[in-house]
Amino acid sequence: MFNLTPYRSVRGFNHSKVQDLGLSRCHARQNTIEYAHTDTPVDANAEVFYALEGIGKESEIRGSTDIPSFFPDVTWIDLTALGLVQRQYRNPAPEASATVVITGSEQYGYISSINFGPTNWMHQLHDVIKDRQVPPPCDAGVTRCRMGRISSAYVNSGRSGNTQTQGLQIYDQLRVGARWFDLRIVTVDTSAFWAAHVNDESKAQPYGATGQSFDSIIDDINKFMAENSGEIIFLSLRYPRRLRTLSYDTPSLWDPDTIKTFYGKLAKLRNLCPDLLKVTDNPVLLDGVLGKLNASDLLDRNNGAGCVVPLIYQHEDVNKPAFDISAGVYSLNHILPASSYDHWSHKDIPGTVAVDQAEFLQTLPRDGTAGDMFFHHAILPMNPALYSNGINAMSPGHFPNVILQDYLGCLHPGEGEFPDDLGAEIRVLCIGLNLYMVSQNCIAAPSANPLLNPPPKAKEKTMATASPGTAGMDAFRGIIYANGTVDYNPPPNLHVGRGGDKCSN
Q1: Which SUPFAM superfamilies does the protein's record reference (predicted)?
Q2: Taking 90 as the threshold, does the pLDDT of residue 329 lie above it?
Q3: Where are the beta strands (DSSP E) in 285-386?
Q4: Max alpha carbon distance in the chain (Å)?
Q5: Is the dihedral of CA 365, 368, 370, 376 positive or negative?
Q6: Which CATH entry fits the domain spanning 132-415: 3.10.580.10, 3.40.50.12280, 2.40.10.10, 3.20.20.190?
């Protein structure tokens, strides 16, 4: 449970059987539940109550069972006292937690990760982040985002267990909340353009596989941008190579015709933003300049529709796609200068990954002297460690620009139906970090704390999204079950899994 409100969470309902726990502002606490597994399964319940200090509104976490089920141990998150919803989670694994992120305030309204609000979360925060530099702090991103499935265009020992890194296609990754995409684009022999995940793109036949086609990625982005105005999407583009399936020759760098075709595809992207920078005879002078723009410079472009920003990775190869400012295609160096840190831990154990990421984060103070930082986490059991370990290492003086995840939004491998099979943790985390933690850094956020002094427009937008669910569910106060069933109109006093008189049996 991660508290991104301006209130400390303290023990709520007072009973001898209820845990006495506190949860500071901008901190996460992992609640451990021990389930008694016997030869004869029996129902069991446990619960903990948090109250917002000075407000008195309670959050309830209940451990319960779902027998018979492949996932017999479940957790109920009940936020009805905050005007939000109840949701049942199948516990993903013995050492992998169900996660809830809560942000907001009495003045601003409350938002939680247990159901999805409007998908244009940047637009919802426009008046909060408009004066912050690009990319807005604590943006949500995905590593090897194109690998939501394995395709047959190129496969060399690549399979879902060692090559697939996402459970969703780009469109649903966008709906979950991702705005920074790590894209590796190749051609295979003389065929179309594909996203890929390989161990060494400089080899003729590297190990790995292709994923989503580049054409379908563009279609997904355009579909999302047509439905959601006022968003900024960054596409970090690497791997401009031709892989071989029929030849052991060295891989071909893209020839001029291939590069021209590639740029023709980029031109199909909706809401490109040309001429954000002034052309100079010395390209080095442009390093990091895009990152000095205010978010409003991109949020408000295209008559408020926002921006899609392709970023070409510049490397030493002679034949490579070059940036074209007039076409709205930029260099990755324009936003990530040499002082930026894309820190990969290269560790095998979740605990050591979390510690390594957290320790590196502490070396980058947010006082204007350090560069940008990317925070990396992957699915079970790594994604939950982002909340139970990594978040507590963040502070107003130390936070990443982009948080990159594998299997974004996925609670269990193999489940990926939007919205009720997925989790909004990363989206609400980014919203909450921008609303509360980053807002306490006067260098990164010049405006006052929006949770206590919300801009009129921001309050108006967010109060309408305090517990919405999907489109048409703005007043949703229902119950979401782990199997995807939704009770839209439960009895007002129904709290599934609660023991009698607010006490465990």
Answers
A1: PLC-like phosphodiesterases (SSF51695)
A2: yes
A3: 306-312, 330-331, 341-342, 373-377
A4: 76
A5: positive
A6: 3.20.20.190
Residue with token string 């006052």: 448
Amino acid letter, residue 486: V
C-alpha distances in Å from residue 133, one per residue of 102, 168, 505:
25, 29, 52
Query: 134-162 pLDDT, tens per residue?
Result: 876 567 776 654 556 777 778 777 776 67
Alpha helices in 203-255 (DSSP H): 214-227
- Which residue is listed with tokens 């006082």? 367
Q: Which residues are CB-contacts of 475 (< 8 A; sequence separation ≥ 6)?
A: none
Give the span between the Cα atoms of 341 and 374, in whole angstroms. Answer: 6
Residue 474 above 50 pLDDT? no
**pTM assigned to the model:** 0.84
- For residues 376 and 385, give the distance between their C-alpha atoms in angstroms, rounded to a whole number: 11
- Give me the residue label for tokens 């966008």: 174
Question: From CA 336, how far away is CA 200, in angstroms rounded?
Answer: 23
| Tens-digit pLDDT profile for residues 286-327 | 778 888 899 999 999 999 999 999 999 866 554 566 789 999
CA distance 324 to 263: 9
pLDDT digits (tens, 9 = 90+) for 443-455: 777 777 888 887 7
Structure tokens at 215: 């054409």
Amino acid of residue 185: I
Q: Domain residue spans in the chain?
A: 2-121+460-502, 132-415
Higher pLDDT, 353 or 422: 422
**Cα Rg of the chain, angstroms:** 23
C-alpha dist (Å) from residue 131 to 220, 365, 370: 29, 20, 19
Place of tokens 């295609």: 329
Neighbours of 215 (CB within 10 A): 13
- How far apart are the C-alpha atoms of 133 and 276, rounded to whole Å? 14
Quick: pLDDT tens for 230-285.
999 999 998 788 887 776 666 678 888 888 999 999 999 999 999 998 866 666 67
Q: What are phi and psi of 150, to 5 degrees?
A: -100, 125
Q: Is the dihedral of CA 274, 279, 283, 288 positive or negative?
A: negative
Residue 124 Cα distances to 128, 178, 180, 396, angstroms: 9, 15, 18, 22
Cross-strand partners of 410: 422
CA count, 13 A, side-chain hemisphere, 114: 34
Contact present, 167 and 224 (Cβ < 8 Å) = no
CA–CA dist 137, 403 (Å, integer): 9
Query: Residues 6-43: pLDDT tens digits?
Result: 888 776 655 545 555 556 666 666 667 777 666 666 67
Place of tokens 């957290």: 358
Dihedral (CA of 133, 427, 198, 385) sign? positive
